[in-house]
Specification:
Rossmann fold; 7 strands; seven-stranded mixed beta sheet; alpha/beta
Length: 239
Amino acid sequence: MSNQLYNSAIAAHYAAYRPPLHEIILEKIVGDNPVFKNGLDVGCGTGYSAHALSRYCQTVLAIDPSQSMLEKATPHPKITYRNGTLISLPLAANAFDLVSFAGSLYYAHSPALITALKKVCQNEALIIVYDFQILLTHALQQLGIKAKSTPLDYDYTINFSDAGNFQELRVGTERLQLDILPEALAHVCLAEAYLYPVFIKRYGRGDPFPSLVAEIASQNQKQQLEADIYFAKYRVISR
């Protein structure tokens, strides 16, 4: 199978199912009741984080530097997608009362970003930074697979602890366990680039999804997915 076909298949499994971690994390750190007027999702990717943020906002502006990612985003009546960065886009001053960075701050963090963020935020606005790491070790052990992912030069815990004018309200990390159906777990496994070839080799040519679902289901036990989550919550204070 060519790299292009591998990438296409992996992307299809990624799109087919993602665990609801954005929703779970935001519920933990924003809560159920707050309603904000204008939300901003910085580095929205294909829109999962923007959809989760829309639960709390009347409108959401979701921005990302990748046009190809935005083209895969699902439309939503509250969400406007724009191609660009917080630094490059001419956003209005004091426009947003809730801002989120979901797995995007590591790539965007800079003094220029902090300056732009202070400009577009209202006084007392909330800033939410969060990330997560899906852990497949237990699921793979049950399948008798010892494949390891390639270590990434990536910091899941990066936040705004070094920024002035941001009052730290809450910072933490937590491990979650989610019940998951065999079909969903198979999609999560096959969405990992380092695992897809492993399952092709295991089941032979063709789509490995049906065989993987059947093997997971044959274990006759409740399946769980583990994830480590990282989050930080700030309030913009008077300039």
